[in-house]
Amino acid sequence: MSSEHAHEDAPPLTEEIAPGTAADPAVGGTERATVTVDGTPVTVEAGATLLDAVEAVDTDEYVPALCSYDRQEIGPRSECRTCMVETEAEGIVPACSHPAEDGMSVSTDAEAAAQARDVNLDLVLSNHNLRCTTCGKNGRCELQDASIEQEVEEPRYGVLDERDEYEPLDDTSSFIQIDRNKCILCNRCVEACNDVQVEGVLRMEGSGQDTRIGFQSDAETMEDSTCVSCGHCATVCPTGSLVEKGIEDATTIPIPGFTQKNSVGKAIESSGETKGPMTPKKRDTDRREDPDAAASTPNAPSADDVATDGWAGFEGGEWP
Ligand code: SF4
Ligand code: SF4
Ligand code: FES
User: Fold this and answer.
1) CA angle, corner 24, sides to 127 and 84, nearest 5?
2) Torsion over CA of 28, 32, 38 and 41, rounded to 10 degrees?
3) Which H/E stretch holds residue 212?
């Protein structure tokens, strides 16, 4: 069998990991195309979406794209609908997932498209714990940027501000804090974890109002999941839902006792057990699959070390 044929037969990695991972279909155009955006013609490469065309032009209207990442094969999910534009042929469409086809004409400033973007941004905000002053992503948050650009003063549907309804903060991991009250379900983290890092830790779980970020291992907390603490999910998260530990309060207003954690009011705390950046479960799986690599890995604690004292001897940064 040729290697090319073998490649064709191989299932996508995501199918081997678990349900809930992303396997987005290709959404871009099949050929190079010239599209007119707000009267300005722009030529984009094969595979481009209308969002690529919009971003190539200095448009009058700001077009957010909260659930689109457009790098590393992540997204788009067509989830947030904050990127709506008007096309001559098909009316209002999400720019992030509509192929750019030759001859298309797009308006970002059409009244109906601007209205759709406004309403959809307010819908995202309505389910969001909008406490920017205690948020680790304050000042580097795409939702905050979009709200400022769209001049949102009072979201028409309100914001999630009922502390009784807040999900507890998952503060159990030494590396990443999860605040699901700020998740916009963009799925970027799930794709980064499964499709880019190929770790298979995160997934979307539940449905409807109960949809949330969860773990493929059915773990309840980040600490108990198979997370290897690579941090890729926090890097791609557009909001303060996944934040690197150590800087979770870095952008909080400097008032004593004013923190991200007490903003939410309830948190699941770490068990206190010391762990390395690779959880024992993941490490053991790797060792079973490749004993030679495990044996030759410098600074890896032996199975006995782990059984008796966990990661007590771990020196940060030495484990791959
Ligand atoms: S994630 Fe944080 S900074 Fe971003 S809008 Fe929400 S509260 Fe504000
Ligand atoms: S945790 Fe962040 S990256 Fe993941 S779905 Fe929620 S907002 Fe998106
Ligand atoms: S960015 Fe297009 S639907 Fe979210």
Assistant:
1) 50
2) 170
3) strand 212-215
Give which of 188, 226, 215, 240 is closest to 77, Cα–Cα: 188
What's the gap in Å between 222 CA and the centre of ligand 3? 27
Instruction: Taking each helix axis as running N to C, give the angle between helix 111-126 and helix 142-149, from 0 to 180 degrees, rounded to the nearest 10.
Output: 140
**DSSP codes joined into one string, 84-129:** EEEETTTEEEEGGGSB--TT-EEESS-HHHHHHHHHHHHHHHHTS-
Distance CA 226, CA 202 (A): 9
Ligand 2 centroid from CA 161, angstroms: 19
46 in Cβ contact with 26 (< 8 Å): no
Contact (Cβ atoms closer than 8 angstroms) between residue 106 and residue 226? no
| pTM summary value | 0.78
Q: Residue 295: phi, psi to the nearest 5?
A: -65, -30
Which atom of ligand 2 lies closest to the CA of 239?
A: 7
Q: Mutate which of 54, 62, 77, 185 to test ligand 3's pocket (most atoms within 8 Å of Cβ)?
A: 77
Instruction: For ligand 2, say whether the CB of 278 is within 6 Å of any of its atoms.
Output: no
Chain position carrying tokens 């028409």: 156
pLDDT in tens, 258-286: 787 877 888 998 888 766 555 545 555 55
pLDDT 10s digits, 89-137: 999 999 999 999 999 999 999 999 999 999 999 999 999 988 888 888 9
